[in-house]
Specification:
Length: 319
């Protein structure tokens, strides 16, 4: 009997520790359910590509903001909608929506929506991402591939550029996203390159790479999906105590083509990532500088790390 209560006490302690650690985990997606809106006056001052909800904008095409509290000529669309269907937001009053295909009427017609994260992603950390979609009940086409792409900077509004991107999270091929009543979760884990600050959601594949299904009863010729409740959580284990922040300053010296690091810390390593998210250089930090002579002009993300896994992320312009 005593051993039973001993095991039970141990389990309770473990659950307590897990709950306290999870309490530190926060969703990095700002305005994850599109509920934090702006007034018509504020939206009119910014207008396109900003949506009338904070921290979201139209990156490719013209994705929509839907609200049950519809205000005409304020960047909103009425919800529910006679053309697209009866669906309500998964939570709250608002959601977003985007076109994933208009095949065969318009080949490779895509709309993508981009939001900003509260903090840059940390190099080599494991993140869990989830979001929910629902296909409009009047849509003619259902597809299988909708995903999330993380980038250091906002993406280029060019469809040809779009198809060169490889989303870190994507619905599995041939698993049709065809539910018109229930919200479908798309989720998964990925390892961050470090410095990613934007999340872009939609279909990143040309029509030729999609599995499509046609509905028998429809009034909307394309594949249109509603979007709600996006989350990005850092799943890398955290310690029960806080370490002081890594003390590092960085600048670029154009005269000798070097990235200078001012620090009193020892045994530092670095990773240099280009604007496409590709690691172009990494290694031990020697003499507190990195040669940039072989680098192309542009903006890079520099991740500096010590042996205790403390990291600092910097944006560096090389010219």
């Amino acid at each position: 009997m005593s051993s039973f209560f001993g095991i039970k006490s141990l389990i309770m302690i473990i659950l307590f520790l897990i709950n306290n650690l999870c309490a530190k985990c926060q969703n990095l997606v700002l305005n994850h359910s599109f509920e934090d809106t702006v007034t018509c006056t504020q939206w009119a001052l910014n207008d396109w590509p900003n949506l009338p909800c904070k921290n979201w904008y139209q990156s490719i095409g013209s994705p929509d903001f839907w609200s049950t509290q519809y205000t005409p000529w304020c960047g909103c669309s009425p919800f529910p909608n006679i053309l697209l269907g009866y669906q309500l937001a998964k939570s709250g009053n608002n959601c977003a929506g985007f076109v994933s295909s208009y095949f065969p009427n318009f080949v490779n017609a895509k709309e993508l929506i981009t939001g900003k994260l509260s903090n840059p992603l940390i190099f080599n950390h494991k993140y869990y991402t989830s979001f929910y979609v629902n296909v409009c009940n009047n849509c003619h086409i259902h597809i299988d591939k909708i995903g999330a792409y993380f980038s250091i900077d906002s993406i280029n509004p060019d469809s040809n550029y779009l198809f060169n991107l490889n989303p870190q999270i994507e619905n599995p091929a041939n698993l049709m996203l065809s539910d018109t009543m229930n919200w479908m979760e798309i989720s998964g884990f990925f390892i961050a390159n470090g410095g990613e600050q934007f999340i872009t959601l939609g279909c990143f594949r040309p029509d030729s790479a999609l599995t499509m299904d046609s509905a028998l009863i429809w009034s909307e010729p394309g594949a249109y999906y509603f979007l709600d409740d996006i989350s990005v959580i850092d799943c890398t284990a955290v310690t029960l105590y806080e370490l002081p922040e890594l003390q590092v300053n960085v600048w670029y010296n154009a005269i000798d083509k070097t990235i200078k690091i001012n620090t009193t810390e020892n045994n530092l390593s670095f990773t240099l990532i280009n604007a496409m998210g590709k690691v172009v250089m990494q290694g031990k930090l020697l003499n507190n500088e990195i040669s940039a002579a072989a680098l192309s002009r542009g903006v890079y993300m520099l991740v500096v790390e010590d042996k205790r896994y403390r990291r600092r992320v910097f944006k560096v312009g090389v010219y």
